[in-house]
Amino acid sequence: MRKERVLAMAKKDFERYNGDLVYRFLHDAVSDVFAQMLKADMQALNEGKHRDISLAAKWCPTIDSAYDKSLLICESIAK
């Protein structure tokens, strides 16, 4: 029953993403910000600039978290 509920939430988000242009814009914008910040953090880490690392990794949703299951945002960030 739990898997069905998670699947229903994902389906609902997918339909909203495809049907609501404002929601799609916001979803994509948030995904882009996380992706850019994580990329910059990786570059700073590789260069040894530890003070330049943001908190993006701390606040970025993790795969299979409740937040990701309801918004499917991790896939967008990974793109």
From TrEMBL:
Pfam families: DUF2828
Coiled-coil residue spans: none
Entry-linked InterPro entries: DUF2828, UCP015417_vWA
Stretches assigned to the DUF2828 domain: 2-79
The protein, known as: DUF2828 domain-containing protein
Species name: Quercus suber (Cork oak)
